[in-house]
Design a protein that fits this description.
heterodimer, A: about 450 residues, alpha/beta, Rossmann fold, six-stranded mixed sheet, four-stranded antiparallel sheet, 17 strands, globular, B: about 290 residues, 3-methyladenine DNA Glycosylase II, Chain A, domain 3, Alpha-Beta Plaits, two-stranded antiparallel sheet, 8 strands
């Protein structure tokens, strides 16, 4: 069974919501759509207070190259454009819309019919993806149209589709592959057309045999699409790890996947691209998992962007007793939520309830030089060394140790027998080194 | 006997030749170094804190010797006496910078600013700041994890475990600026020490609109504008919903302190106020001109 070459861990999977049908959540009374919920510059609002909007209507215009359009996910009246707390407690601009009915733009095809044929040209498809505000739904929320336009001189050879879902607990991609397999495969053919590639591989971990089976059956009807079952290993969903696991190419340090001729897209993103191109539907809803050991009914929900997480949680049975921490995203890369009154963003893949006893950090002990962190690091770094350097503010040394390669997967902190907060310190170093590198770039430009 | 003689002569010759070579190389590659640099360095406090803006006392001494005048050169640790001494060594007119001191611009103690969640991560402000806004509702306020305390070489700033806010020891603070750089929330500012150490400043950095700011902290600046209006010296400006007192214009009349509805403006080291019946304010302004 294939997997990536170096490092990796296998935490307990705990996929309680696996196989649970995607449920549509009820429409909330008000949605709060953040204008900045992806990597890149925040959008420019194009509606004002009192405007009537329909679902799918543009409300925030992309601002710059790495930026994405934002659309209203409901129909109703714009209440205000104000700041709203995001999941980490900082205030971000957002559009508040009072929901009234559920009227969609006429151009959006809401029928369940699958449109297989796509006669648009490459440029037209890219324009549609850009207009629909599609961003990477795997978590990094990088605008999809940027990723699909390789820099001049670089040519993609293989399209790698990420159906790995290596995070424990989360099952939204799994369920999507079961229920929307056909749509995903059509989405893949569309991306293949844009990139002008003949080959696509879908990487799926073998703890999802039903999804592998389903996509294999569908993909056999199309040319050049192959499903690769992978050994369960975290962080296989990382771009570079997935490329290594599926097509055996290693992306050099500091380079983008396009260097080795690969472009990676998540299955969720692929589905969103299908909907945008074939159904004219912008990215206004996504599947998210609400789960946890004590969760009342762990399941997958189709939620409109901008719905407050409290509403989602209430429909999923509320916060269970004895919850110590609520995590936005998966247990490995997700972040603890300060409060639940934050809007659902394009990158929110899940809500996870952690019971009290599991949400406490154990006291840190001294490093015993067991090198477990070095063994598990999927990027081949030395986390213990990076932490020591970060504690002593040795930024130049950290840069030499390739700290910027760190994908912040958290395998090192997970595996450390001394409970050392390795990732926290590495992230600190990464921020500081990143600032130094940016400064240097600015200086060399001005020179 | 012969052997000893030969070795002595050989060694002697090698020594003599080396001495000659060394003599000429030393002449050839001689680097002229102003002898005053050593003297100036001696006069400096050797704290090597970097507060002057140079990488250490030696570099500062070099800069002093090289510079045309003493303008812009100041050792915050040594203060006026040291700089006077340095100017005397170099035979220049001393330029005395007004002493400054670090002030923490956050008044959100535990009772004023209720905790909404509990942070159990690494006790390091910068790391916590990267993760989220902090334990309280105010995303601008002090995290209380003590990066400033660690950064201080002079033991002058300490986080009070009761209030979870750092407190500056004025006697020890040399205003080197290490804590200013260490604070990820940019709460610490170097302000003029003021006559008799009397200072007035806005102890808040919250840039939220009034109602939101007030909700998260009792003593936050709500940008009501009262202080700006009452200030007779135009020393207060409000930008981004936050008042700021410019210490070069402030005459320490304390009118703003009286009108501030949230007590966000703090006065330090003033004598206790006289009862309201008597004439307020004016006499306090005088020490500045004196």
């Amino acid at each position: 069974m294939k997997t990536f070459r170096i490092g990796g861990i296998h935490p307990k999977e705990n996929k309680f919501s696996a196989g649970k049908k995607i449920q549509q959540t009820e429409l909330p009374k008000q949605v709060v759509i953040p204008l900045a919920h992806y990597i890149g510059a925040p959008g420019e609002p194009v509606v004002k207070k009192g405007d009537l909007v329909k679902a799918g209507q543009l409300i925030g215009k992309a601002n710059g190259f790495i930026s994405a359009n934002i659309h209203s996910s409901v129909s109703g009246k714009v209440n205000k454009i104000d700041v709203q707390l995001d999941a980490s407690g900082y205030k971000r601009p957002a559009v508040f819309i009072d929901v009234d009915g559920d009227e969609w733009l006429e151009t959006i095809d809401r029928s369940g019919e699958i449109v297989r044929e796509c006669h648009l040209s490459k440029e037209e498809i890219l324009r549609k993806i850009q207009d629909a505000g599609i961003v990477g739904l795997g978590g990094a929320t990088f605008p999809a149209h940027v990723k699909l336009s390789p820099p001049p001189g670089k040519k993609a050879e293989v399209l790698v589709i990420n159906g790995v879902e290596c995070e424990p607990y989360l099952t939204c991609d799994h369920q999507l592959m079961l229920e929307k397999g056909e749509e995903i495969v059509v989405g893949i053919t569309i991306i293949m057309k844009v990139l002008d590639v003949k080959r696509a591989v879908i990487g799926i971990e073998n703890n999802k045999p039903d999804a592998i089976e389903n996509l294999r059956k569908i993909a056999s009807q199309y040319n050049g699409i192959e499903v690769v079952p992978l050994k369960v290993q975290y962080p296989q969903g990382g771009e570079k790890q997935l490329i290594d696991a599926t097509i055996g190419r290693q992306v050099p340090s500091g380079a983008l996947p396009i260097e080795v001729g690969a472009v990676v897209q998540n299955v969720g993103t692929t589905f969103a691209i299908y909907e945008a191109v074939q159904k004219n539907k912008p990215l206004i809803e996504r599947v998210m998992t609400v789960t946890g050991k004590s969760a009342v009914s762990p399941s997958n929900y189709l939620v409109r962007i901008g719905t407050l997480l409290t509403e989602v949680v209430n429909q999923a049975g509320g916060v269970p007793d004895g919850t110590g921490k609520i995590i936005g995203g998966g247990p490995m890369m997700g972040r603890s939520l300060m409060n639940l009154n934050v809007p659902m963003a394009k990158g929110s893949a899940g809500i996870l309830f952690m019971p009290d006893e599991e949400s406490i950090r154990k006291p840190m002990k001294n490093c015993i030089r067991c090198t477990k962190c070095v063994t598990v690091c999927p990027m081949g770094l030395e986390p213990f060394l990076l932490m020591n350097q970060s504690e002593r503010n040795m930024w130049t040394e950290m840069e030499k140790e390739r700290v910027m390669d760190c994908i912040e997967c958290g395998s090192c902190s997970y595996t450390c027998p001394s409970n050392r907060p390795l990732l926290d310190y590495i992230r600190f170093g990464k921020t500081s080194v990143g600032a130094i590198i940016r400064n240097r770039a600015v200086k060399s430009v001005t020179k | 006997m012969n052997l000893i003689l030969i070795s002595l002569i050989t060694l002697g010759l090698v020594g003599a030749i080396s001495a000659v070579i060394l003599f000429f190389t030393a002449k050839k590659f001689h680097v002229f170094e102003d002898s005053r640099i050593d003297v100036v360095e001696e006069a400096l406090p050797s704290a090597n804190c970097g507060g002057c803006g140079f990488p250490g006392c030696r570099a500062f001494a070099e800069a002093c010797v090289k510079a045309e005048s003493m303008e812009g050169l100041n050792c915050p640790v040594g203060g006026a006496p040291v700089m006077e001494n340095v100017a005397n060594i170099l035979g220049r007119v001393p330029v005395i910078a007004e002493p400054t001191v670090a002030v923490v611009r956050c008044g959100g103690t535990c009772e004023h600013r209720p905790r909404m969640n509990e942070y159990d991560g690494v006790k390091h402000c910068f790391i916590a700041h990267n993760l989220y806004s902090g334990e309280t509702g105010c995303s601008f306020g002090c995290l209380g994890l003590g990066d400033c305390e660690v950064s201080c070489e002079f033991d002058a700033i300490k986080v009070n475990p009761e209030t979870k806010l750092p407190e500056v020891d004025e006697e020890k603070c040399t205003s080197c600026g290490a804590c200013v750089k260490a604070c990820p929330k940019l709460l610490i500012e170097l302000r003029k020490k003021g006559p008799k150490s009397r200072r007035i400043y806005v102890s808040c950095r919250n840039e939220d609109r009034g109602p939101i700011a007030k909700k998260s902290c009792d003593v936050s600046c709500i940008a009501c504008g009262k202080c700006e209006k009452v200030c007779p010296h135009e020393a207060i400006t409000i930008t981004n919903n936050l008042a700021f007192i410019h210490d070069d214009k402030c005459k320490l009349c304390r009118k703003c302190v009286e009108v501030c509805p949230t007590n966000a403006i703090v006065e330090l080291n003033f004598p206790p106020r006289k009862p309201k019946v008597e004439a307020p304010s004016t006499p306090v302004a005088e020490p500045v001109e004196a």
